[in-house]
Amino acid sequence: MKPRTLLVPGLAIFLLAGCQRPPPAPTEQRPEPQATALRDAIKQPIDKAKNVQATVDDAARQQEADIDAATQ
């Protein structure tokens, strides 16, 4: 075999091995959320409505209990 016939494939393998992407740099910390104020502004009325619903449900249960006690 001629040395030139081994040189071309060896050079091709060497060049292809160097074509890999470098690994991404690790991030040290997670990015801060950008929309916290907007999310809080949307979530506040929803939480308030859930609390009101719980109060209404409790009042309905109490009313049913009072009606049941009065009819017996």
Structure summarized in a few sentences:
The chain has 72 residues and is mostly helical.
Describe the structure.
This protein is 71% helix and 0% strand. The chain is an all-alpha fold. It has a domain at 35-72.
Question: What secondary-structure arrangement, pairings included, does this model have?
Answer:
Layout: H1 3-17, H2 36-71
Q: How many runs of DSSP E, i.e. beta strands?
A: 0
Structural class by helix and strand composition? mainly alpha
Task: Bin the strand percentage.
Answer: under 5%
Rg over C-alpha atoms, rounded to the nearest angstrom: 36 Å
Number of contiguous helices: 2
Helix content estimate: over 70%
Span between termini = 109 Å
Order of helices and strands: HH
Characterize the largest beta sheet: strand count, sense, and whether it forms a barrel: none
The stretches of 5 or more residues where confidence is low (pLDDT under 50) are none
Report mean pLDDT, rounded to a whole number: 83
Overall, the morphology is rod-shaped
Q: What distinguishing features does this structure have?
A:
mainly alpha; rod-shaped; single chain; 72 residues; 0% strand
